[in-house]
Amino acid sequence: MSGDAQSVAAMPARGALVALEGIDGSGTTTQTRQLVDALVRGSATTPPLRAAATCEPSTGKLGRLLREALAARPTLDPGAMALAFAADRLDHWAREVAPLLQQGIHVITDRYVYSSLAYQSVLLPESWVFAINARAPEPLLTIYLQLDPQVAARRREQRGQAAELYETEPIQRAVAARYDDLLGASMAAASWQLAADGDWRRAGPLRQRHGRASEVAIVDAALPLAVVHEQIVRLVDTVLRSPPRPGE
């Protein structure tokens, strides 16, 4: 085997990016952490995978500034907030996500592009929010944890933490409606769907919006946390081991 062939053979397969999305209280943070734990641990039927959890806003300098802005009163102009989220996303990708993917590590992110599209386009033109996020690469899969805003509000109250900028009932209802519009209001609109036998299947087309073509699955986040976790783990394992769509 030549030196070049040895180098290619030694290179790890590229990792995949999976994004969890949903309104505040839908469980994106909990499910991200538990999903990574399950992938790394493996099971009797699935071998362990290399995986890492991350989040947006990120833990970098821009992300820390955004978290301060989300907790502050008053906060930044909506347009400035949208630009800051987009800038943090590109920095997050270059600084953390891309290097992990290149090492063959699957990255599970608690929020990604569709968070900006759902939250920022409540007050700003949707096309502009898409435009400033156009350079963010598309994940392999976006999982939408769909939850009624009233249920989410009760969950946030139980956390006993101070409400952040977007955690008011009117905003959360508007954001939930934006998510439904962007990613689908029911599982039947998703590109991955849960069959009666409990398996996930690629059953629908990609979600198309402003030039973005997204693989989307919708999970009922009102189900018990353990059930939601089981569905997500089975989904991600299926997607990671599935061949790409024709033409990809």
How do you describe this structure in short?
With 248 residues, this protein is of the alpha/beta class. The chain has 9 helices and 9 strands. β7 (207-209) and β8 form a beta hairpin.
- Supply Rg: 18 Å
User: What are the low-pLDDT stretches, counting only 5+ consecutive residues below 50?
Assistant: 1-9
CATH superfamily: P-loop containing nucleotide triphosphate hydrolases
The CATH C-level class name: Alpha Beta
Biggest β-sheet: count, sense, barrel? 5 strands, parallel
Topology as a string of helices (H) and strands (E): HEHEHHEHHEHHEEEEEH
- CATH fold call: Rossmann fold
Strand order of the largest sheet: 2-3-1-4-9
Q: How would the global form be characterised?
A: globular
Approximate strand percentage: 15-25%
Helix percentage range:
40-55%
| Integer count of domains | 1
Total beta-strand segments: 9
Total count of helical runs of at least 4 residues: 9
Helix and strand content put the structural class at alpha/beta
Keywords:
disordered N terminus, 9 helices, alpha/beta
Protein architecture, described:
With 248 residues, this protein is α/β, with parallel strands linked by helices. The protein has one domain (15-240): P-loop containing nucleotide triphosphate hydrolases (Rossmann fold, 3-Layer(aba) Sandwich), CATH 3.40.50. Helices cover 46% and strands 15% of the residues. It contains 9 helices and 9 strands. The protein has helices at 3-10, 28-41, 61-71, 78-102, 113-120, 126-132, 149-159, 169-183, 225-240, and strands spanning 17-21, 51-55, 106-110, 141-146, 192-194, 200-202, 207-209, 212-214, 216-220. A 5-stranded parallel β-sheet has the order 2-3-1-4-9, sandwiched between helices. Strands 5-6 form a two-stranded antiparallel ribbon. Strands 7-8 form a two-stranded antiparallel ribbon. The radius of gyration is 18 Å and the shape is globular. Mean pLDDT is 90; it is low at 1-9.
